[in-house]
């Protein structure tokens, strides 16, 4: 019985460490994905079952586009300052989520009496 509990605990620790390491690696490579693309969807919000409002960056220009059932229309054009502000907000939200994840991972490691 003791051997089974020990084996289970060790397996759980190994799995948690693997998840932590993979998350760290994925975060490092996130910046390189899509680095050469000219079109980037910054944000998308669903309005109804089949309609969306999308913020798109094409090179240095930004557009607010409505998309519904195969039809899309440009609602507004955004300035470079607006695009920079949106990208900064997205980066801040991503960094906040990463910090929460790291805090949770550190708490789990601490409870398991492991060091980073």
Automatic annotation (TrEMBL):
Keywords: Cell membrane, Membrane, Transmembrane, Transmembrane helix. The chain crosses the membrane at residues 6-23. InterPro entries: Flagellar_biosynth_FliO (IPR022781). Signal peptide: none annotated. It is found in: Cell membrane. GO terms for biological process: bacterial-type flagellum organization. GO terms for cellular component: membrane. The keyword Transmembrane helix applies. This is FliO/MopB family protein.
């Amino acid at each position: 019985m003791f051997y089974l509990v020990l084996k289970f605990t060790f397996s759980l620790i190994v799995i948690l460490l693997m998840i932590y390491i993979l998350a760290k690696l994925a975060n490092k490579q996130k910046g390189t994905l899509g680095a050469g693309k000219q079109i980037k969807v910054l944000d998308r919000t669903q309005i109804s079952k089949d309609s969306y409002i999308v913020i798109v960056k094409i090179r240095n220009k930004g557009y607010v586009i409505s998309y519904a059932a195969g039809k899309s229309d440009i609602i507004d054009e955004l300035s470079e300052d607006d695009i920079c502000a949106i990208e900064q907000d997205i980066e801040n939200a991503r960094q906040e989520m990463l910090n929460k994840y790291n805090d949770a991972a550190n708490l789990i490691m601490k409870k398991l009496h492991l060091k980073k």
